Amino acid sequence: MGIVSGKGGVGKTTFAVNLAIALSRFGKKVLIIDCNISTPHVAYYLGAESYSINLSNIFKGEVDVKFAPLSHHGVMFIPASEDLKDMDIDFEKLNTYVSKLDKKNTFDFIFLDSAPGLGDEAVSVLKTAKEILFITTPTVPNITDMVRCAEFLSNLEHKEMRNM
Ligand SMILES: Nc1ncnc2c1ncn2[C@@H]1O[C@H](COP(=O)(O)OP(=O)(O)O)[C@@H](O)[C@H]1O
Ligand SMILES: [Mg+2]
Asked: Which of 32, 118, 124, 131 sits at 20 to 30 Å (Cα–Cα) from 150?
Protein backbone atom coordinates (compact mmCIF):
# COMPACT_ATOMS: atom_id res chain seq x y z
CA MET A 1 0.00 0.00 0.00
CA GLY A 2 1.30 3.45 -0.92
CA ILE A 3 1.07 6.21 1.69
CA VAL A 4 0.72 9.38 -0.36
CA SER A 5 -0.32 13.01 0.22
CA GLY A 6 0.70 15.54 -2.37
CA LYS A 7 1.87 17.93 0.32
CA GLY A 8 4.79 17.22 2.66
CA GLY A 9 4.61 17.35 6.44
CA VAL A 10 1.03 16.09 6.77
CA GLY A 11 1.80 12.85 8.64
CA LYS A 12 2.51 10.17 6.01
CA THR A 13 5.57 8.71 7.67
CA THR A 14 4.06 8.96 11.15
CA PHE A 15 0.96 7.12 9.93
CA ALA A 16 2.92 4.46 8.00
CA VAL A 17 5.20 3.72 10.93
CA ASN A 18 2.43 3.66 13.55
CA LEU A 19 0.17 1.44 11.45
CA ALA A 20 3.09 -0.89 10.73
CA ILE A 21 3.92 -1.17 14.44
CA ALA A 22 0.27 -1.79 15.32
CA LEU A 23 -0.05 -4.52 12.67
CA SER A 24 3.19 -6.17 13.79
CA ARG A 25 1.73 -6.34 17.32
CA PHE A 26 -1.13 -8.33 15.82
CA GLY A 27 1.46 -10.78 14.52
CA LYS A 28 1.55 -9.46 10.94
CA LYS A 29 4.78 -9.32 8.99
CA VAL A 30 5.17 -5.76 7.78
CA LEU A 31 7.80 -4.18 5.57
CA ILE A 32 8.09 -0.42 5.15
CA ILE A 33 10.06 0.84 2.18
CA ASP A 34 11.23 4.42 2.43
CA CYS A 35 10.41 5.71 -1.05
CA ASN A 36 11.15 9.30 -0.03
CA ILE A 37 14.65 9.39 -1.43
CA SER A 38 15.03 13.18 -1.14
CA THR A 39 14.13 13.42 2.54
CA PRO A 40 14.08 9.94 4.08
CA HIS A 41 12.76 9.56 7.64
CA VAL A 42 11.46 6.01 8.08
CA ALA A 43 14.54 4.70 9.91
CA TYR A 44 14.56 7.71 12.22
CA TYR A 45 10.85 7.38 13.02
CA LEU A 46 11.35 3.68 13.78
CA GLY A 47 14.13 4.61 16.17
CA ALA A 48 16.68 2.65 14.14
CA GLU A 49 20.14 3.98 14.76
CA SER A 50 22.20 1.86 12.46
CA TYR A 51 21.50 -0.23 9.41
CA SER A 52 23.68 -1.61 6.70
CA ILE A 53 21.39 -1.68 3.67
CA ASN A 54 19.26 0.82 1.83
CA LEU A 55 17.01 0.97 -1.20
CA SER A 56 19.87 2.07 -3.38
CA ASN A 57 22.01 -1.00 -2.49
CA ILE A 58 19.04 -3.23 -3.23
CA PHE A 59 18.26 -1.63 -6.59
CA LYS A 60 21.91 -1.95 -7.57
CA GLY A 61 21.71 -5.67 -6.73
CA GLU A 62 24.31 -5.34 -3.99
CA VAL A 63 22.14 -6.86 -1.28
CA ASP A 64 18.98 -8.95 -0.90
CA VAL A 65 15.81 -7.94 0.95
CA LYS A 66 16.25 -10.86 3.36
CA PHE A 67 18.90 -8.69 5.01
CA ALA A 68 16.41 -5.87 5.56
CA PRO A 69 16.78 -4.67 9.14
CA LEU A 70 14.20 -5.42 11.80
CA SER A 71 13.42 -2.46 14.04
CA HIS A 72 13.02 -3.01 17.75
CA HIS A 73 9.27 -2.46 17.14
CA GLY A 74 9.13 -5.68 15.11
CA VAL A 75 8.77 -3.94 11.75
CA MET A 76 11.11 -4.69 8.87
CA PHE A 77 12.19 -1.69 6.88
CA ILE A 78 14.25 -0.68 3.91
CA PRO A 79 15.62 2.80 4.53
CA ALA A 80 16.51 5.19 1.76
CA SER A 81 20.16 6.13 1.50
CA GLU A 82 21.11 9.37 3.22
CA ASP A 83 24.00 9.80 0.80
CA LEU A 84 23.21 12.46 -1.81
CA LYS A 85 25.18 10.41 -4.36
CA ASP A 86 22.36 7.84 -4.24
CA MET A 87 19.75 10.35 -5.40
CA ASP A 88 20.18 9.14 -8.98
CA ILE A 89 18.24 5.99 -8.10
CA ASP A 90 16.25 4.40 -10.93
CA PHE A 91 12.67 4.80 -9.69
CA GLU A 92 11.35 2.58 -12.46
CA LYS A 93 12.84 -0.35 -10.53
CA LEU A 94 10.41 0.04 -7.62
CA ASN A 95 7.54 -1.59 -9.49
CA THR A 96 9.56 -4.66 -10.53
CA TYR A 97 11.06 -4.97 -7.09
CA VAL A 98 7.78 -4.79 -5.16
CA SER A 99 6.11 -7.22 -7.60
CA LYS A 100 8.93 -9.68 -6.93
CA LEU A 101 8.43 -9.30 -3.18
CA ASP A 102 4.66 -9.74 -3.54
CA LYS A 103 5.18 -13.03 -5.37
CA LYS A 104 7.41 -14.35 -2.57
CA ASN A 105 4.58 -13.75 -0.08
CA THR A 106 7.02 -13.06 2.75
CA PHE A 107 5.12 -10.05 4.04
CA ASP A 108 1.49 -9.55 5.01
CA PHE A 109 1.83 -5.84 4.23
CA ILE A 110 4.30 -3.76 2.30
CA PHE A 111 4.00 -0.02 2.94
CA LEU A 112 5.57 2.42 0.50
CA ASP A 113 6.17 5.70 2.32
CA SER A 114 6.02 8.27 -0.47
CA ALA A 115 7.74 11.56 -1.08
CA PRO A 116 5.36 14.52 -1.50
CA GLY A 117 4.59 16.07 -4.88
CA LEU A 118 4.45 14.47 -8.29
CA GLY A 119 8.13 14.01 -9.05
CA ASP A 120 9.65 10.69 -10.14
CA GLU A 121 9.92 9.32 -6.61
CA ALA A 122 6.26 9.98 -5.73
CA VAL A 123 5.04 8.82 -9.13
CA SER A 124 6.93 5.54 -8.71
CA VAL A 125 4.80 4.84 -5.61
CA LEU A 126 1.57 5.78 -7.43
CA LYS A 127 2.52 3.39 -10.23
CA THR A 128 3.65 0.55 -7.97
CA ALA A 129 1.19 0.30 -5.09
CA LYS A 130 -1.96 -1.75 -5.57
CA GLU A 131 -3.74 0.46 -3.04
CA ILE A 132 -3.08 4.11 -2.24
CA LEU A 133 -3.92 5.65 1.08
CA PHE A 134 -4.04 9.44 0.98
CA ILE A 135 -3.10 11.40 4.06
CA THR A 136 -3.87 15.09 4.42
CA THR A 137 -4.65 17.79 6.92
CA PRO A 138 -7.74 19.99 6.54
CA THR A 139 -6.27 23.04 4.84
CA VAL A 140 -7.04 24.18 1.31
CA PRO A 141 -3.47 23.84 -0.05
CA ASN A 142 -3.04 20.36 1.46
CA ILE A 143 -6.38 19.10 0.20
CA THR A 144 -5.79 20.69 -3.21
CA ASP A 145 -2.45 18.90 -3.52
CA MET A 146 -3.97 15.59 -2.45
CA VAL A 147 -6.74 15.97 -5.04
CA ARG A 148 -4.12 16.73 -7.70
CA CYS A 149 -2.37 13.47 -6.80
CA ALA A 150 -5.66 11.57 -6.89
CA GLU A 151 -6.41 13.03 -10.34
CA PHE A 152 -2.96 12.09 -11.54
CA LEU A 153 -3.50 8.59 -10.21
CA SER A 154 -6.86 8.17 -11.87
CA ASN A 155 -5.22 9.16 -15.16
CA LEU A 156 -2.67 6.38 -14.64
CA GLU A 157 -5.13 3.54 -14.12
CA HIS A 158 -7.88 2.46 -11.81
CA LYS A 159 -6.70 1.89 -8.23
CA GLU A 160 -8.56 1.43 -5.01
CA MET A 161 -8.36 4.70 -3.06
CA ARG A 162 -9.07 5.31 0.61
CA ASN A 163 -9.10 8.86 1.95
CA MET A 164 -8.56 9.42 5.66
N1 LIG B 1 -1.76 12.91 13.79
C2 LIG B 1 -0.84 13.84 14.08
N3 LIG B 1 -1.11 14.80 15.00
C4 LIG B 1 -0.19 15.74 15.28
N5 LIG B 1 1.03 15.83 14.71
C6 LIG B 1 1.35 14.91 13.80
C7 LIG B 1 0.43 13.87 13.43
N8 LIG B 1 1.00 13.11 12.47
C9 LIG B 1 2.22 13.65 12.27
N10 LIG B 1 2.44 14.72 13.06
C11 LIG B 1 3.65 15.54 13.08
O12 LIG B 1 3.69 16.26 11.85
C13 LIG B 1 5.04 16.36 11.40
C14 LIG B 1 5.17 15.78 10.00
O15 LIG B 1 4.87 14.39 10.06
P16 LIG B 1 5.48 13.38 9.01
O17 LIG B 1 4.89 12.06 9.34
O18 LIG B 1 6.96 13.49 8.95
O19 LIG B 1 4.85 13.95 7.66
P20 LIG B 1 5.17 13.54 6.15
O21 LIG B 1 5.71 12.16 6.14
O22 LIG B 1 3.83 13.66 5.46
O23 LIG B 1 6.14 14.56 5.63
C24 LIG B 1 5.91 15.62 12.43
O25 LIG B 1 6.44 16.57 13.31
C26 LIG B 1 4.92 14.72 13.13
O27 LIG B 1 5.32 14.46 14.46
MG1 LIG C 1 7.55 11.50 5.30
From this structure: 32
